[in-house]
Amino acid sequence: MSVKLLPLDNFLNSFGNAMHNRMDLSPYYGHWYQCACGGEHVMDSRTSLVLQGYWKVMAICPEDPTYFTNIKVQMFMMVKFKGFKSLCGTRINTAEDQQLLMTVVDQLK
Ligand SMILES: [Zn+2]
């Protein structure tokens, strides 16, 4: 099962009200997530998280930084971690998309 790739604007919208990432995912390090690149990676201290939505984080692929994934942090009753679920992804392959992403991230709180 691969992660669905969306155009950048749709991908960004999938986060809802996004902000700079403040979620501490260290309790869940060592769990794997599916990446937009088609591979799977382990979440750890080297994972680059750009921003967050509600229980969602945007991760940059550690192997090909043109791929970004919207990863849902699945919880039971807000307390018990149930795993990562990749909702969608995007690939930044134009200067225009790169600029849009940087503009959005710069304007977040
Ligand atoms: Zn990847």
Helix content: 10-25%
Name the beta content range. Answer: 35-45%
The backbone outline, from C-alpha atoms, is globular
Mean pLDDT: 95
Distance between the termini: 34 Å
Map the helices and strands:
Blueprint: H1 8-13, E1 19-20, E2 32-34, E3 40-42, E4 48-53, E5 56-60, E6 67-76, E7 80-91, H2 95-107
Antiparallel strand pairs: 1-4, 2-3, 4-5, 5-6, 6-7
Zinc ion binds next to loops.
Question: What key phrases describe this protein's structure?
Answer:
alpha+beta; two-stranded antiparallel sheet; 109 residues; binds zinc ion; 7 strands; 5-stranded antiparallel sheet
Characterization of this structure:
The chain has helices at residues 8-13, 95-107; strands at residues 19-20, 32-34, 40-42, 48-53, 56-60, 67-76, 80-91. It is α+β, with helices and mostly antiparallel strands and 109 residues long. It has one domain (8-107). The termini are far apart. The structure holds zinc ion. Zinc ion is lined by residues 35, 37, 39, 41, 61, 63, 67.
In short:
By secondary structure, this protein is an alpha+beta fold.
